[in-house]
Design goal:
Strands 3-4-2-1-5-6 form a six-stranded parallel β-sheet. A six-stranded parallel β-sheet has the order 9-8-7-13-14-15, with helices on both faces. Strands 11-10-12 form a three-stranded antiparallel β-sheet. It has 14 helices and 15 strands. Helix 7 (198-205) links the parallel strand 7 and strand 8 (210-213). The chain is an alpha/beta fold. The model has no long low-confidence stretch (mean pLDDT 95). Bound molecules: adenosine-5'-diphosphate and magnesium ion.
Length: 391
């Protein structure tokens, strides 16, 4: 990685502003955090700073709640120390006073950045207000690094800006699978739509030995091969892309596997009638909701041979338990491999975490959209602004 990290600069006694991604999922009724992985993922950075007696100022956005920070309690439990919350919504003299009170190793959490429209507008005045609180800026929010917001991009104009340990890890792992993956290298692709994944598929195809396609997007590939897919989710404007990708895969000697059998349903609901059929036998008024057992077997056999696997996108409508078998089977299989296994994508990471298999993977990206963009070859603004390593 050609960016400086917190290990490359003196942080002791300094005021360090850490942009974290604490945008955790919450129970809609109780407001309780349902998955704290994103908070846990930033602990190495926070602990590193605490150990060196930096004065730590954390900030994050939290998408859903109208209310105030909810991460304080969990963070405080995980760190085993007090975490203060800056009591004021707007930045300014009051918050600066709170920062002045911090001693080496103390932690202060700023209020939800989403309270400020200037955050998403990347307003210089807001970036400056953030910068005034600190001596050093640390980006540890990989999942927000594709957004040119004030706390991601703007603030780096006014402070020395370096990567946190999570950001560093995300970049190293994803760069690693792009630059020199151990072969055979497979990508297991699923999820709802091809349109979200086009750049990733295009950018990685040349490095792959094998591309396995399940999930909603498989229907478009099947249709491009003239199969009847009934009422399945099809992106008609992506049929040409699907055909082109299959042709390119063949030319480059990449094995491309599509489902050979599928779980179909007469509606997308837990009460639906369900059948397993070969992809040649999909009735016109049914839809694909999962990969079938033979496909699970053929995908598994292929993946067992691989030394690197990148997985993005569930194999079926996993939110409904009876359509989750393909996705769960792939999660278990990847967890059992000795290969380097990297999981990206919000839903995919959620499944793996809910199944308590995250520790069994080499890496589960906290990045969602950011990891797909990175693997798609895009430069992320929040990484671009960090200080370069010289020499
Ligand atoms: P990720 O967040 O991991 O990148 P996506 O956002 O691309 O994954 O896709 C997740 C969604 O894909 C899920 O909501 C799931 O229900 C949907 N999905 C998977 N298979 C199908 C299918 N056969 N038909 C419709 N939707 C599907
Ligand atoms: Mg998603």
């Amino acid at each position: 990685m050609n960016k400086l990290t917190i290990r490359d600069i003196e942080v002791g006694g300094k005021r360090v502003l850490v942009r974290a991604d604490f945008n955790v999922p919450l129970n809609e009724n109780t407001g309780v955090i349902t998955d704290d992985s994103r908070i846990r993922a930033t602990l190495p950075t926070i602990k590193y700073l605490i150990d060196r007696k930096a004065r730590v100022i954390l900030c994050s956005h939290l998408g859903r709640p109208k209310g105030r920070v909810v991460e304080k309690l969990r963070l405080s439990q995980l760190l085993g120390q007090r975490v203060e919350v800056a009591p004021h919504r707007s930045l300014g003299p009051e918050v600066e006073k709170e920062v002045e009170k911090l001693k080496g190793g103390d932690v202060l959490l700023l209020e939800n950045l989403r309270f400020h429209p200037e955050e998403e507008e990347n307003a210089p005045s807001f970036a400056q207000a953030l910068a005034r609180l600190a001596d050093i800026y640390v980006n540890d929010a990989f999942g927000a690094s594709h957004r040119a917001h004030a706390s991601i991009v703007g603030v780096a104009n006014y402070l020395p800006a370096v990567a946190g340990l999570l950001l560093e890890k995300e970049i190293k792992v994803l760069e690693g699978i792009l630059a020199n993956p151990a072969h055979p290298f497979a990508e297991l692709a699923g999820g709802a739509k091809i349109s979200d994944k086009i750049t990733v598929l295009e950018n990685t195809l040349g490095k792959l030995d094998c591309l396995l396609i399940g999930g909603g997007m498989a229907a478009t590939f099947l249709k491009a091969k003239s199969y009847q897919v009934g009422l399945s989710l099809v992106e008609d404007d992506k049929l040409d892309f699907a055909a082109k990708l299959m042709k390119e895969a063949a030319e480059r000697g990449v094995r491309l596997l599509l489902p050979v059998d599928v779980v179909i349903a007469d509606k997308v609901s837990a009460e639906a009638r369900v059948r397993v059929v070969s992809v040649e036998e999909i009735p016109t008024d049914w839809r694909i909701v999962d990969i079938g057992p033979q496909t699970i077997d053929s995908f598994s056999e292929e993946l067992r041979r691989c030394k690197t696997v990148f997985w993005n996108g569930p194999m079926g409508v996993y939110e409904i338990a009876k359509f989750a078998q393909g996705t769960q089977a792939m999660a278990k299989l990847l967890a059992s491999l000795k290969a380097t296994t990297v999981v990206g994508g919000g839903s995919t990471a959620e499944v793996v975490t809910a199944m308590k298999l995250a520790d069994k993977m080499s890496f589960v990206s906290t990045g969602g959209g950011a990891s797909l963009r990175f693997l798609g070859g895009e430069r992320l603004p929040g990484i671009e602004v960090l200080l370069e390593r010289k020499g």
